Amino acid sequence: MSSPVGLDRDRLAELGAAAAGRMEQAGVELVALSFVDNSGISRVKAVPVAKLATVAAWGVGASNSFDFFLGTDSIANGEYSLGPVGDLRLHPDLDALTVLAAQPGWAWAPAWRYDQDGQPHPQDTRALAATAAAQLADRGLTARMAFELEWIATDADGVPLPGPAYGYARLSANHEYLRAIVSALDSQGVDVEQIHPEYAAGQFELSIAATDSVRAADLAVLTRETVRTVTAAYGLRASFTPKFEPGGVGNGGHVHLSLWDGQRNLCAGGTGAFGLTSTAESFGAGIFRRLPALLAVGAPSVVSYLRLEPHHWAGAFTAWGLENREAPLRLIRGAAGQRDTAANLEVKCFDLTANPYLVVAGLLFAGQAGIDDEARLPEPVSVDPGSLSPADAAAAGVTRLPESLSAAVDAFEADEALRDAFGPQLATTLADVRRAEVAELGSLEPAELCRALRFLH
């Protein structure tokens, strides 16, 4: 990951020319440059490979209005909106340039966003994630992160593929499709840990190995688009929506995170609960305290709150625990003998309408605020928190997380640490965009809402 800080255009042109040569030798003709907007949609510009040197140095134009796009492609008004005026430049991160196995003749690179004077765009979410990681590094710490992707595969008419939950029959009926996904990802340098049928009809889950935080977000983007492309090649459709239909089990976008001091995993070998070190507990507590506000980042759509139901393994309550799948924050220790490397925190209340770079930034900033506050986690919950009596829930401090996007936005705006970390432009725009989605979609009945957003993300 190399941000063009300072924009040494001669050097960038040299690096771009070298990259273009490698791409041409690999049969690449076009390069897709993508960024993720504040509503979680990957937006893209593409250039011929012969233009890569010029684009590396000078960028390619993109409207700053993308900061205000909704998932429906409506454009919100906002305090920092310039409407149709102005332009930004997309600069590819050449270190992340990837030949696309599922799109012959194409390569992909995530883009940094700069203004026309060569200054970083204050709403560049990938740059924000890199800033959060750099601030963590200044503390002598790193985070290893990974996203889980869940999707529902349907036929061309939108009917989910058949087969029992977690069933071998669903896997065997679709073995070529699943193998093609993993093969393409492997060719693209994505380390797949597992793939399997999930609970809902037609649902599959794919887990990626943990890596550095910004790279983890890059891989979430690349993996999703690869799944989408391979799915289409098999005459199917992929839905990453948090709620495919009312009453059903939704698609999550769980995030795994471990905190490291050099080669030591701070989520294991400590004297705290279940082996957490003091630093890792404070980091986790910073996230836990801010889950209501972080939902505006990690569950950023109106439809997200149809998924956040009790008893659906979505994490709808303010609880944490060891291997508790109903808790929004759970500690996974791993098998005995591997815990020094395997132990990690999982955030379960997020979904794939989220911009993964905002997720990375939000979690890292929240965790660091917890370290600064020397925060401590409450007592862990070892049962389904939704099964607690009102008295027991009150005694344990267990309450429902926000049940609407509006409530999550209110919590985000009330969180000074997150607002300051995101900066005034981005923090304000996030609230403006979220409220615009509520205004456009919030009055829809659940069935209509699910239909409207089923295939957008």
UniProtKB/TrEMBL annotation:
One of its GO terms (biological process) is glutamine biosynthetic process. Residues 125-457 form the GS catalytic domain. GO terms for molecular function: ATP binding; glutamine synthetase activity. It comes from the Bacteria. Residues 26-118 form the GS beta-grasp domain. PROSITE patterns: GS_BETA_GRASP, GS_CATALYTIC. Keywords: ATP-binding, Ligase, Nucleotide-binding. The keyword Ligase applies. PANTHER family: GAMMA-GLUTAMYLPUTRESCINE SYNTHETASE, TYPE-1 GLUTAMINE SYNTHETASE 2. Belongs to the glutamine synthetase family. This is Glutamine synthetase. It comes from Amycolatopsis echigonensis.
